[in-house]
């Protein structure tokens, strides 16, 4: 992406502040001085300083000048509300994903649940029963199997988002559900605001649809700072807020309920459409299933639209490829888009899932799954902390089965080093458009903790020790 002159100046000054060239409360060059230092116009300098002031990097004292923010260390952590006129992620992502998905490596990198934690044998039996249905091999309802949609509607209503079967569209996985939702409310050139870090696949969708992006950082205690959020809305006028409020991938964050309510209120006030990825919502580690943010959003006819997207990929099987969009205000738009791409959804697989749900207790399966994932997250954290001598900063997830880890090492280089150990990790650079996550990486704990895997993790973690106790320390 080619930056404008003021964007380049903003980046240069941020880098100087982040590197410590300018420290807290230190006066920075005046507008006239920066013109000379950076060979730019006064207009460029004014716009750059305005952005730096708005984002909290600097403050102004009348008749004195501009100064670095008093609490700059709290400001420079994470992405600072960065704006991207174009998204150019696909080639970079594909190159890294080729390594992450290499079947010769232990896949700590892909967020795919291992078969040992899924009801594979029960699904085999369900598929056999599904094949006996008279209409199994015919086209099904384009909107999706009515019985499956009815089951999803009842379950959605139980967890705070009351809908009918008519307000659900079955899709080929959650990614397609999100894509349809974006199709329904955007045009090329529209702006979408997304938290950062966030699921890597979203950037490929945003690039394909030619959408602009604003990144807003997650905040550990609340999810998203609503004051920051509203400022960005006023400045960039986004069309859509695309997010995961419940156990975001990769950091496992859960939005506070008061934050959800306030974000819903802000979005409705400014007419912003909501697209919520709730694929990890069932995988909470403690307490009860959190409500989706959309449950707090006004569904007034003529107001902004909202879409809740999910799938069975993280709970039953990623290969089933059955997802859905739930929407009270946009089902006609979603169904129209679906008709443009296909005649029907995968009919046999939908029947298979119904057969499974008829004979198995889904909630009992989830209860066991959550307990296993919570324990694995804790066991991995303890092992990695111990074997690295505490040199890794591991974010404690509120749900899901991935760990978000910070180190002093570059994540992309770390991927190559992990490959030498027969492992694949997901470098942090995948999860944002900016470079703020280069020293992070994500690992999937659902590969389990067999003796072989434990041995690999120990060798991997020892490489972070300051004294380099493992051969080949980097």
UniProtKB/TrEMBL annotation:
InterPro entries: Aminotransferase_I/II_large, Class-I_PLP-dep_aminotransf, PyrdxlP-dep_Trfase, PyrdxlP-dep_Trfase_major, PyrdxlP-dep_Trfase_small, Tscrpt_reg_HTH_GntR, WH-like_DNA-bd_sf, WH_DNA-bd_sf. Pfam families: Aminotran_1_2 (PF00155), GntR (PF00392). PROSITE patterns: HTH_GNTR. GO terms for molecular function: DNA binding; DNA-binding transcription factor activity; pyridoxal phosphate binding; transaminase activity. PANTHER family: AMINOTRANSFERASE, GNTR FAMILY TRANSCRIPTIONAL REGULATORY PROTEIN. In the C-terminal section; belongs to the class-I pyridoxal-phosphate-dependent aminotransferase family. This is HTH-type transcriptional regulator NorG.
